[in-house]
Amino acid sequence: MRLSAERRSGISEQAYGWISNIQRFSLHDGPGIRSIIFFKGCQMRCAWCANPEGQTAEQDVFFHADRCLHCGNCADLCPTGLHSMNQNVHVLERDRRCVGCQLCEERCPAAALNIVGEHVSAQNAFERVMADEIWFRQSGGGVTLSGGEVAMQPEFARVLIEQLKAEDIHTAIETAGYASWHAIHQATAGCDLILYDLKSAEDALHTRFTGVSNKTILRNLARLLQGGQQIIIRIPVIPHFNDAPDQADKLLALISALTQGKKNFQGVELLPYHLFGTGKYKLLNMEYDWNRGSANVDNFLCMAHHYRLPLKVSGTLAG
Ligand code: SF4
Ligand code: SF4
To answer: Where does the Radical SAM core domain start and stop, copy by copy (predicted)?
Structure first.
């Protein structure tokens, strides 16, 4: 088989964006075997967010405090004073900006530091994911753009998708929908599948626990449903937020009304809450205070039957 990686000639347009990670061999977030490109930057602040490193737009410093030898190498090297020493104890000044020089990570003898966040060209990201092209083709998989919020960097997303589509690679975008219509449209216009997160039908509850109103999100979803792209609506099922019977009922009733007669609507996917992201809060010196037990998906399963909505339960959680 001749792989398209051999005939790549570069993108006619160039765009740059911030990413936190490229995860290979994922079996979630779209069909087949996939690579997930995690974009940085998000305006929402969901109380249970599993990807806190995706909230900020640029670099973050993961600090493994338990490994630190307090040698002072990082404090000597850091050009911005983000690392310093106070009476022979290493101190992180989180209000100072990291410029991503990587010096501290490279010279730390204890591997106590990781710089999270890369500013990359679309060409660079494209070439990295295309290393797994053979797996995409053999499994019916492809590439998913996730975050953070992809629509915060719509031009980067658009160019990346254009390049992947030129090589006939399946593309999906995971979005929470909180951006201008122009940005959502620009980011998603060329992709094959949109994974659209909805969290609550109640605006006051949504605002309290995500930091933003759901009005823009619902408006953007309604417009996307007018188009021809396949859409799966994904619900992070969060204990003490949206998993009670009345909340499940309201959200699925809303989805039922929005998707009535829409041929591009592919169904609902539940993403049960988990605690996999909590270690990252510690590395960022952030508090995680949503330890609320496990999510109850049964109320959604029951209501989905009532509203005749196709629904499946996934093993992963969106932010
Ligand atoms: S990457 Fe550079 S700027 Fe950022 S914390 Fe390390 S030494 Fe400082
Ligand atoms: S270089 Fe590493 S071990 Fe030394 S003070 Fe900095 S974080 Fe700690």
So the answer is: 28-312
Q: Which atom of ligand 2 is least distant from the CA of 110?
A: 3
Q: How far apart are CA 121 and CA 10, in angstroms?
A: 11
Euclidean distance between CA atoms 20 and 43, whole angstroms: 16
pTM: 0.92
Question: pLDDT tier at 163 (50, 70, 90 boundaries)?
Answer: very high
Tell which atom from ligand 2 comes closest to the C-alpha of 73.
Answer: 1
Each residue of 96-121: pLDDT tens digit? Answer: 999 999 999 999 999 999 999 999 99
CA dist., res. 49 & res. 18, Å (int): 19
Burial class of residue 287 in the structure, from the number of CB atoms within 10 Å of its CB (0-12 exposed, 13-18 middle, 19+ buried): exposed
Give residues (CB < 6 A) around ligand 2. Answer: 68-74, 83, 90, 108-110, 112-113
Confidence of residue 317 (pLDDT cuts 50, 70, 90): very low
